[in-house]
Amino acid sequence: MLGQPRQIFVLTGAGVSAESGLGTFRDRGGLWSRFDPMRLATPEAFAADPDLVLDFYNHRRRDARAAEPNAAHRALARAADTLAARGGHLFLCTQNVDDLHERGGSAEVVHMHGELMKARCTACGTVSERREDILRADPCPHCGAAALRPDVVWFGEMPKHLDRIEAALARADLFVAAGTSGSVYPAAGYVGLARARGIPTCELNLDPSDNADAFDAASYGPASETVPAFLAELGL
Ligand code: OAD
Question: Is the C-beta atom of 30 inside 6 A of ligand 1?
Answer without folding.
Answer: yes
